[in-house]
């Protein structure tokens, strides 16, 4: 990557925006210019990048002139309003919100799983939901070896999925409860410290919440398997950072534990963590700050001849959000998918 690019982070002061800034530095992304955008509440703040103070600017309709790549993590309504304007200005938007994920014109990309989808973009590429990313990175290599027929997922989702304020709420509530006080809830609808509850995203008519349906619909789109049978139960737990998932897989044909481990040991973005004698398997505290999805407790499902069970943990802010977005940007650069601007004529409006 010899050429350099003009990059903007939309939602720079949030948990994912802060991680994006760190990753661009850590991975030495080829930058010629970096702009930081946020709402009026954060405009005027400064953020450190490579030892320098960068000014956070208030985002507006004309903010994206002379920008090649926009890494957006400012919420669905903001993305819907501003992403088309960024594309019209000549930028490619990698969007971390749910705004465009299920749009047929927008590729939904995990570089370890479906990198070729990025080449079909029309100016916007969607970053999948965090739980979807972590699961897909771990199970797609197995799907390629023995086609998966059914997925049953249970997630244990940390506060980081609801942002920096939610992480602070866990800390504050813990102190309040330990001091004998009633916990104060502002971000979550119920106390999260020393507690857990089903994911609080809106319920739908079929009894699944939106977070659960994201796992279903996004996985089908990414795997290009619209008939894949998937069910999920998503739970919010009192962990600061990194999500965990219990995954049950039903394959077309049996897949042995030994073969599954061999496949995963050679898969990008996956690290097997298992010590059966010590009963030591992936934990959120070990996954925090890590790029890889940690996978362990791989075992046969004793209730089904073609079934396999596994447990995984992954950093929701990192691989579940910011890292995946930066990897998509690297993919665009490596494959020269930013030079052609023909997509602008048919860009999403």
From TrEMBL:
InterPro entries per record: Asp_semialdehyde_DH (IPR012080), Asp_semialdehyde_DH_beta (IPR005986), NAD(P)-bd_dom_sf (IPR036291), Semialdehyde_DH_NAD-bd (IPR000534), Semialdhyde_DH_dimer_dom (IPR012280)
Molecular function terms from GO: aspartate-semialdehyde dehydrogenase activity; NAD binding; NADP binding; protein dimerization activity
Entry superkingdom: Bacteria
Binding site for substrate: 157, 210, 236
Residues at which NADP(+) binds: 13-16, 41-42, 160-161, 316
Positions of the catalytic residues: 130 (acyl-thioester intermediate), 243 (proton acceptor)
Catalytic activity: L-aspartate 4-semialdehyde + phosphate + NADP(+) = 4-phospho-L-aspartate + NADPH + H(+)
GO biological process: 'de novo' L-methionine biosynthetic process; diaminopimelate biosynthetic process; isoleucine biosynthetic process; lysine biosynthetic process via diaminopimelate; threonine biosynthetic process
Function: Catalyzes the NADPH-dependent formation of L-aspartate-semialdehyde (L-ASA) by the reductive dephosphorylation of L-aspartyl-4-phosphate.
Designated name of the protein: Aspartate-semialdehyde dehydrogenase
Species assigned in the record: Aliterella atlantica CENA595
Lineage, opening ranks: Bacteria, Bacillati, Cyanobacteriota, Cyanophyceae, Chroococcidiopsidales
Gene that this polypeptide is encoded by: asd
């Amino acid at each position: 990557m010899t050429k350099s690019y003009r990059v903007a982070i939309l939602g720079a002061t949030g948990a994912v925006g802060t991680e994006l800034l760190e990753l661009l530095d850590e991975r030495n992304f080829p930058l010629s210019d970096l702009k930081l955008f946020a709402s009026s509440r954060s405009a005027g703040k400064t953020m450190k990048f490579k030892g320098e103070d960068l000014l956070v600017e208030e985002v507006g309709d004309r903010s994206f002139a002379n920008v090649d790549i926009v890494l957006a993590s400012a919420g669905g309504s903001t993305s819907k309003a501003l992403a088309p304007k960024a594309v019209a200005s000549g930028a490619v938007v990698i969007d971390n919100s749910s705004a465009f994920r299920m749009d047929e014109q927008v590729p939904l990309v995990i570089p370890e799983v479906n990198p070729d989808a990025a080449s079909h973009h029309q100016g916007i590429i969607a970053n999948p939901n965090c739980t979807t990313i972590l699961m897909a990175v771990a199970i797609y290599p197995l799907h390629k070896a023995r086609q998966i027929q059914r997925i049953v997922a249970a997630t244990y989702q940390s506060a980081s999925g609801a942002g920096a304020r939610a992480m602070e709420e866990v800390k504050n509530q813990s102190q309040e409860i330990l001091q004998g006080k009633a916990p104060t809830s502002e971000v979550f609808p119920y106390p999260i410290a020393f507690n857990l509850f089903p994911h609080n995203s809106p319920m739908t008519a079929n009894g699944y919440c939106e977070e659960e349906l994201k796992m279903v619909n996004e996985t089908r789109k990414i795997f290009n398997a619209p008939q894949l049978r998937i069910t999920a139960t998503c739970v919010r737990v009192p962990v600061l950072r990194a999500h965990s998932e219990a995954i049950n897989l039903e394959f077309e044909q049996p897949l042995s534990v030994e073969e599954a481990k061999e496949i995963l040991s050679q898969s990008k973005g996956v690290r097997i963590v298992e010590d059966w004698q010590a009963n030591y398997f992936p934990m959120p505290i070990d996954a925090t700050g890590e790029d890889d999805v940690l996978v362990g407790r791989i075992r046969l499902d004793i209730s089904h001849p073609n079934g396999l069970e596994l447990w995984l943990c992954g950093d929701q802010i990192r691989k579940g959000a910011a890292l995946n977005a930066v990897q998509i940007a690297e993919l665009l650069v490596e494959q020269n998918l930013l030079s052609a601007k023909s997509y602008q004529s048919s860009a999403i409006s």
